[in-house]
Amino acid sequence: MDLRSIPIEEALGHPLAHDLTKIDAEKGIKGARFRRGHILQPEDLPVLREMGRRSLSIIHLGLDEVHEDEAALSLAKALAGEGFEISGPEEGRCGLVSTGRGIVRFDIEAVRSINKDREWSLACTQCNSVVGPGSVVAAFRILPLCLKKDSLDRAVEAASPFILIPFLHRRVGLVSTGQEILEGLVKDSFREKLERKLRELGGSFSGQRVCGDRSPDIADAINELLECGSDIVICTGGMSIDADDRTPQAIATASDEVLFRGVPMIPGSNLMLARKGLSWIIGAPACVAHDERTALDRLLIALFAGSGGELNVSLWGEGGLCRRCKVCIFPECEFARIPS
Questions:
Q1: What is the C-alpha separation between 181 and 212, in angstroms, rounded?
Q2: Taking a C-beta distance cutoff of 8 angstroms, is the pair 286, 240 a contact?
Q3: Best CA proximity match to 86, nearest among 156, 137, 34
Q4: CA-to-CA distance for 32 and 91, rounded, in angstroms?
Q5: 140 forms bridges with which residues in the sheet?
């Protein structure tokens, strides 16, 4: 690369070799004020001086070199898998932007391999994070103004696509257990909260059944909701270790297989999951009624992403403690992410 600097007055009529960034700290703005290829005009000179520019770089690339924009764009094409669009290049940087809502997955070893070359800077969200439409999950650039073609080839070869696992539409039913609810002595406090969670995930509420504490009645309510087309049935109440708590027994009776009972997460440790055919039955602990976020939320994310049969809940202690932030940012936190 042949790089030399000339006064801005001598650069009039010449194309810019790269984006020129302007920072306005008072307005909190940072971005490209002039784009690569812009032909410098006399009216641009006052703006350049305000930006602290008194000279500009003139670049002549060698035959074996690639400009920063082309390098970032080439890597972007190798990393952009299903569910992602490319943003940029801008200021030598490209990004991957989600086109839908779901979980992002990628090969972390591929990311680490690219970053071993200190000419590259590839930053990304954590694998298995929840993302929504328009979320930027990765941004990357080269640090110099140009890159040797063999360095670019190594990065592209090491790259593995980022994939979006989209949330499926799930119909979710609710079985509220407890003689006190059945007799109207206590009002069910979870349905409204559940419906809000389902809207966030793109699901729908398929109905509610209220029954007492008898295990056969609970099992009948579960089967009724499944027969009505529910993909997931959530049971609340009767999930502790007391002798009168019979919901786990009812779930076991109604299901083909119990996958787990208990997870290393707080709140929500006493969570249960079973399967019947292609549908799922959840036993939700009492905390779901009063805590805004619990282990149930992570489980719903997994089931909406189609990952129910692949769960290794022994790993869920990682990020499994809700920090009860003053301003909740769920699902953009470790409590939502499914460890793998």
A1: 8
A2: yes
A3: 137
A4: 6
A5: 94, 122
Q: Of 166, 201, 223, which marks where a domain is finished?
A: 166
User: So what's the pLDDT on residue 21?
Assistant: 79
Residue at 217 is within a domain: yes
Say whether pLDDT at 243 is over 60: no
Ranges 2-16, 141-155, 257-271, 318-332: which has the least confidence: 2-16
Cα 8 to its chain centre, rounded Å, is 44
Predicted confidence at residue 275, as pLDDT, reads 97
Examine the domain organization and report whether 178 and 311 are in the same domain: yes
- pTM of the entire predicted model: 0.85
Centroid of chain to Cα 101? 8
Pairing verdict, β 279-284 and 232-236 = parallel
In this structure, are 305 and 204 located in the same domain?
A: yes
DSSP string covering 248-314: HHHHHHHSSEEEEE--S-BS-TT-EEEEETTEEEEEE-GGGGT-SS-HHHHHHHHHHTT-GGG--GG
Report in angstroms the alpha-carbon separations of 280 from 173, 223, 272, 283. Answer: 10, 11, 10, 10
Q: How many domains does the chain divide into?
A: 3
Q: Say what the pLDDT of residue 293 is.
A: 97
Tell me if the bond preceding 42 is cis, omega within 30° of 0: no
Task: At 100, list the tokens.
Answer: 């839908």
List C-alpha distances in Å: 66 to 63, 96, 152, 169: 8, 21, 8, 44
Here the CATH number for the domain that contains residue 270 is 3.40.980.10
Residue 340 lies in a domain: no
**Per-residue tokens: 172:** 């979710």
What CATH number is associated with residue 28?
A: 3.90.105.10
| pLDDT tens sequence across 163-196 | 999 999 999 999 999 888 888 888 888 999 999 9
Residues 181 and 309 in one domain: yes
Give me the domain span that covers residue 26. 2-60
